[in-house]
Design a protein that fits this description.
Layout: H1 4-13, E1 18-22, E2 28-31, E3 34-37, H2 45-52, H3 58-67, E4 69-76, E5 80-89, E6 92-100, H4 115-120, E7 125-130, H5 137-151, E8 155-160, E9 173-178, H6 186-193, E10 200-203, H7 209-221, E11 224-229, H8 234-244, H9 250-260, E12 261-271, E13 277-285, H10 288-296, H11 302-308, H12 317-326, H13 332-338, H14 342-347
Parallel strand pairs: 7-11, 7-12, 8-9, 8-10, 10-11
Antiparallel strand pairs: 1-2, 1-6, 2-3, 4-5, 5-6, 12-13
Helix pairs in contact: 6-7, 8-9, 9-10
């Protein structure tokens, strides 16, 4: 019988992003966005239990039984780390193992815009990396923290669920905390972190009002705070944060954001023509003009200011799609599938004539 270790090793060897295990199905790998079933027998309930349950701590097992799902990390020393999402479903149990490389990525190595190096060099403020599940937010954040670690003598504290990339000590002193093992919640851990003299704090996700409030407070106090949201544009990100707060606080929150927010990076992972995936990004840097829009609640005008800020490194998603088309990294079909304003593509000579309905590419 094949073991979990053998399957995980195969996932790493085939450069898969995920290993999927499910009762009644053959094991599957996600490779370059496509699901590929392995030439193995379908997994039985006993086989899946033997693969998943021994990985769980007592607390994680209780969460799994009572809530029906649990997230945790797993490591094969010398091979890779994995972010694991285990769940119950109508066939039985299952799990998805996301491959996390041992090496910390670099911004240049990921092919990300150079302006992100300047963002990582900020001394204080709030930086949000946004996008759907599986779009590479954790990888982008890891690259930014990696740059800080290589260039700054700083105290960096991360709060993650679960811990993904393990950062070695370079120039910075880095402490990584995991929900469930080292902290109860993002908000509580973030609140406690401000008593621990950090220079940089990374909060895995701003899931609720309390976490958002603490992140804004930390950024306003003078710390550099990184976090993520599941939003698709800079304007949507701003609206999501403000709308979480009660109406009588929203004016104050817009004022706080206008002073504390430094950048919003929204990204998508697109299929590359030559294989693999490439990131497409919308980047907003908060200058005086954008700060005024935030303060006045005029987020509908953000797109126009991104166009005016191109010399500063800002960009809209659609103009980045145009650049990827010009460099022949993506197909026209992919560009239209992910475009928020197809007229921008057409104005640059990339008309959609002859294309079928744009396909949906699953998150990886």
């Amino acid at each position: 019988m094949i073991t979990l270790e053998q399957l995980l090793r195969q996932a790493v060897e085939m450069r898969a992003s995920d290993l999927h295990l499910e009762v009644g199905s053959r094991p599957a790998l996600r490779v370059q966005s496509d699901i590929r079933f392995l030439d193995l027998d379908p997994l039985t309930s006993e086989m899946v239990d033997e693969m998943i349950l021994p990985l769980l701590s007592e607390e994680q097992y209780d969460t799994f039984i009572h809530c029906g799902d649990v997230d945790f990390s797993h490591e094969l020393p010398g091979i890779s780390r994995f972010r694991v999402s285990a769940l119950n479903h109508y066939r039985g149990r299952g799990a998805v193992f996301r491959v996390i490389p041992n090496e910390i990525p670099t911004l240049a190595g990921l092919g990300l815009p150079p302006v992100l190096e300047k963002v990582a060099n900020l001394d204080k403020g709030l930086v949000i990396v946004a996008g759907p599940t599986g779009c590479g937010k954790s990888t982008t954040l890891a690259a930014m923290l990696g740059q800080i670690n290589e260039r700054r003598s700083a105290h960096v504290l991360t709060i993650e669920d679960p811990i993904e990339y393990i950062h070695p000590f370079r120039r910075s002193y880095i402490e990584q905390r995991e929900l469930g093992q080292h902290a109860v919640s993002f908000a509580d851990a973030l609140r406690a972190s401000l008593r621990e003299s950090p220079d940089v704090v990374m909060v895995g996700e701003m899931r609720d009002l309390d976490t958002m409030r603490e992140a804004l407070r930390a950024a306003e106090t003078g710390y550099l705070v990184f976090s993520t949201l599941h939003t698709n544009s800079a304007a949507q990100t701003l609206n999501r944060i403000v709308d979480v707060f009660p109406p009588d606080e929203q004016h104050q929150i817009r004022s706080l954001l206008s002073g504390s927010l430094k950048a919003v990076v929204c990204q998508q992972l697109l299929p590359r023509k030559s294989g693999g995936r490439v990131a497409a990004m919308e980047i907003m840097l908060v200058n005086m003009g954008i700060a005024g829009l935030i303060r006045e609640g005029k987020t509908s005008q953000i797109g126009s200011f991104l166009l005016m800020g191109r010399s500063e490194g800002m960009q809209t998603l659609d103009l980045h799609l145009v650049e990827l088309l010009q460099s022949k990294q993506i197909s026209l079909e992919v560009a239209y599938a992910f475009s928020t304003n197809p007229e921008v593509l057409a104005r640059h000579g990339y008309e959609r004539r002859g294309l079928a309905r744009a396909p949906h590419f699953p998150d990886a």
